[in-house]
Structure formats: structure tokens, C-alpha cells
Amino acid sequence: MTDSKTSAASAGRRRTLRVGPAGERALRHGSPWLYDTWIEEEEPGAAGDLAVAFDRKRRFLAIGLYDPTSPIRLRVLSHTPARIDAAWFQERLAAAVALRAPLSEAAAQTDGFRMVNGENDGLPGLIADRFADTCVLKLYSPAWIPHLTEIQTGLAALGNWQRVVLRLNRSMQTAPELLARHTDGEILSGAPLDGPVLFRENGIVFEAEPVIGQKTGFFLDQRDNRARVEALSAGREVLNVFSYTGGFSVYAARGGASSVTSVDLSVPATKAACRNFSHNKNDPRIAACRHEPVAQDAFVALEDMHRRGQRFGLVILDPPMFAQSRAQVENALTAYARLTRLGLSVLEPGGILVQASCSNCVPAEDFFACVHQAASEAGRPLREIERTGHAIDHPVAFPQGAYLKCLFARG
Asked: Residues 149-169: pLDDT tens digits?
């Protein structure tokens, strides 16, 4: 359970920050972040203290969580004056969950989705994912540690959780003195875990690894795109590259694919993909699909398949984040272009290419233009089917919050 000293931090004294012109402009335009370089005067405090940002004329700009360990010095909770307490957190959490009401109402078919999407739900640096009756909290700032009690209380009022799991980003794990004895993968409340958690997504059973898996244990943001792949897979041989635990693969199988090849560098991930097929063996379409897991570097695997003359009717390219900063965008676009060429080299004429990007630093138009240019240069111009973005449980409330983009095209 959460240590008592990490609760009710909102009752403490508020720090003050005097903001320069750049920060003032950003906050007045709704930025959820205030960077240290935008601050002219700073009253020091501890991670998780409430802090109020003022302009040079002492006019209110925002209130949020102070984090002296990060260039993002203030994670904004409100751009208007507000009393930040347990009731405020409960109201904000309830609003986020209400936005997902269509998913909650379809729990018999989908009981795995994102309940809180950080900045986009007004809770910057905090993610909450649901996997059946397990709730996973992922924190990206130690500023949330003093407020864990309020968050747990708010979540408890919104669901009958068998357990709540805490995940911490890597930078937080290197500063245990800021964590009040909390650890990554800790069970904050409820029953311990013995293996993965099973949940449903559009009626398909998947396993998530909340304690040791990537992010919160499963990538929920591609749910709608997986359903689109299902509708396009009938009778096709499908290649799923960067397959992780086989989300797209199982959907393709249920859509009637004759075979699915899942490529991922991680051996544990490809084994999990096989288990996800086993979890759904009662579905005759999934049982009838031939599944081949390949634990290999994606680029090497595509080159090998091209040399062997393998061809697929549908190729899915869903790589990890290629750019984590603007300085990496050019290299990321080069990697996307190379990936497009390799994907098309194993796509049969007239087949379907599905290519995604999860790098928020790469603008959507730049990504789509890059893919089209690479395809044209390869002599395989694409005919678009559609472009897609975020699902209902991954709302976008500010420009940098838009990271997911996906292209469906014939090539």
C-alpha cells in the first residue's frame, strides 16, 4: 500500500514560479508543460509540491505539480485557479473514464483499454491502463509519488480492481530517494500476480504483462487499426513486422488469413504471440491459420525474405519509436523510408501495406510523404485506402499529444 507520508501533499504550501515571455505564451495557449528555461524566478521545492506559475505582472497562469528533477519543471493540472485536493483528482479521473464510456459499456467484448492518457486527460505524466480487473499506473515523473493515495482512492471509486500495479519510467528508477520506497512493478493493492493477465479486445483474448512488460504490459493504442487489419485479411498470407506479442497477427487470423508470420527481435515476445494464438484456439478461423513466429531483427528478416522470394498479400510495419527528439527526426524518416522499401519488396503486386509511426516528434504529413516518396522511388506507388490516428481512449488535447499515425494502402 502507499506510504502514508506520500498522501495529502496537496495540503502543503504552494511554490511560486515567475515565468518569462516564452513560458507565458505557451501556458496561455494551453501547454501542459512549463520548462525550466521559461522560468525567470523559481521558489525551490520538492517533487510533487503544488506550484503556481505567474507572469511578470503577477497574473495567474497555471497550477501544477513541481518537479525539480526534470526540464519539465511544472506539469500543469489547471490553467485556471483551482483547489487541488482529493476531490479534484477524483473529478478529473471520473471525467477521463467517462470519455471512455462506449468501451466500458462493451466490457464483455473489450475490457482492456487506456483509462487515463496523461497530458491529454489533464493529468500530465500519469497513465492508467485497464486489463480486465487489473489497473496499471505508469508514472513519468516523481511529482506523482506524493499523490498516489489520492489517485488510488479516485480509481477505487471507478472500478472494482483485483489489483493495482505501479510502473515507473526508467529515469525515475535511477532516483530511488524520490520514490518513498516504491518500486517498478510493485503491487500497490490487491492480489499478487503469478504470470500474465488475460483480457479481451473486441472479443479476442490477449495476455498482458503488467509487472515486467513494455510500457504497461500491452500496446492498447492500435486496437482500432488491428480491427481494420482483420477486415482486410481474408485469404491472404500476412506478414506482421515488429509484431511484439502478436496483436495484429491474431486479428489477421480471425479475419481469415491463410497464414501469418510474426517477426520480432524479442524471443519472449514471439513466444507470447504463440500463446495469444493458443488463448483463442476455440475460434475456428484462428485455429485454422498457420502461424510462424520469427525471432529476428526486422530489417534483417525483411532482407532475408526478399532474397528467398517470399511474398505476402498484406504487410504490417509497426516499428517502435524511431525519434525521441527533434534532432532524431531526419534519421527516423530515413529509417521509415528504408522500412517502406523493404516492406514493398516482400509485398505481392496489389497487396496491402499497413505502416505506422508512434513518434510524436515526426509530423504526420512528413511521415505520410516519406512513405509515399519511398514507395514511388521503389517503383511501387501507393494507392491510399485510409489514414488513421488515435482511438477514443487515446485522446489528443495538445499538438505534441498526437503521436500515432497509420497508413493503409495498396502497392
From this structure: 999 999 999 988 999 999 999
